UniProtKB/TrEMBL annotation:
Pfam families: Methyltransf_25. Keywords: Methyltransferase, S-adenosyl-L-methionine, Transferase. This is Methyltransferase domain-containing protein. Residues 50-144 form the Methyltransferase domain. It comes from Streptosporangium oxazolinicum. The keyword S-adenosyl-L-methionine applies. Residues 250-276 have a biased composition (Basic and acidic residues). It comes from the Bacteria. InterPro entries: Methyltransf_25, SAM-dependent_MTases_sf. Residues 248-276 are annotated as: Disordered.
């Protein structure tokens, strides 16, 4: 598998066919378990202001809004945001949704919580990931919470790694996935072949692989504290071989936290929700 792939692959990956596959694959039960975890481990109060980024088609956004929280969702996929807007309207939910890169988020420190679900934390290269964490720290008020969902942790993917092809099906959509490991850059490169009737689509995704310790350091360096690790929404401990890592943290209370070279410079109008 070629390693010559754009670092911004995600900008064009999430069109209707891949999005529809993952909309079908995510069960209501798994979404409710995730939302229970967020509320329980961050101690959310009624009406908490929550930033969901990237929010995809809005499954966590809408589930949290249905529980009475105030939601803002940002995603780079116009198709996913369009779907989320229609679903919110059908459910009678008032949510703010915008199309933008995950680093282009409101940075006014007004959110009680930020959540990054669905394994998207590993889409960016290390420098981009640090910029994303800095943006999250600017978005969340001091003492506010953070949840990061990640299943490309080194402790999860490398033990017994074989890279064997996988075949998955939801209704009339079938996807074959082939994954290789780029050891020089510590990243998974996955090729996906989607089919639905006569429709076919081939796309490639990158997930940068980090150790659990490295992830914790990135969050701490970016302005968060009290990092905790869980192996799933049931609150089980994260251990080697666990298929999923859920990290929780709090925005540092110190208003004079150290600035970092990866922090993007503020620009006029950056606190506006993109494409709202």
């Amino acid at each position: 598998m070629s390693h010559d792939i754009s670092s911004t692959w995600y900008a064009n990956f999430f069109t209707e066919l891949p999005n529809e596959f993952w909309r079908r694959a995510a069960t209501p039960e798994s979404t409710e378990a995730d939302v229970d975890f967020i509320e329980r481990h961050l101690g959310l109060r009624p009406g908490a202001r929550i930033l969901d980024v990237p929010c995809g088609s809005g499954r966590h956004t809408l589930a949290l809004a249905a529980r009475g929280h105030r939601l803002t969702g940002v995603d780079i996929s116009a198709e996913a945001i369009g779907y989320a807007r229609r679903a919110a309207a059908d459910a009678g939910l008032d949510v703010a949704l915008g199309i933008a890169d995950m680093r282009d988020i409101p940075r006014d420190g007004s959110f009680d919580v930020a959540v990054c679900m669905g394994n998207s934390f590993g889409y960016l290269d290390p420098e981009g990931t640090r910029a994303f964490v800095a943006a999250l720290a600017d978005a969340v008020r001091p003492g506010g919470g953070l949840v990061v969902d990640f299943n490309a942790t080194a402790e999860s993917v490398l033990p017994g790694y074989r890279g064997e092809p996988r075949r998955m099906r939801t209704g009339d959509i079938t996807v074959t996935a082939t994954t290789g490991y780029d050891a020089a850059r510590s990243r998974l490169i996955s090729g996906y072949h989607f089919t639905r009737g006569t429709e076919e689509l081939e796309v490639t995704a990158i997930h940068h692989v980090y150790t659990s310790a490295h992830l914790g350091q990135i969050l701490t360096d970016g302005g968060f504290t009290g990092v905790e690790r869980f192996g799933g929404p049931d609150g089980s401990p994260f251990e080697i071989g666990a298929g999923r890592l859920l990290l929780t943290a709090r925005r540092a209370e110190d208003p004079h936290r150290r600035e970092h070279e990866h922090r993007p410079r503020r620009t006029p109008g950056e606190n506006r929700l993109p494409d709202e």
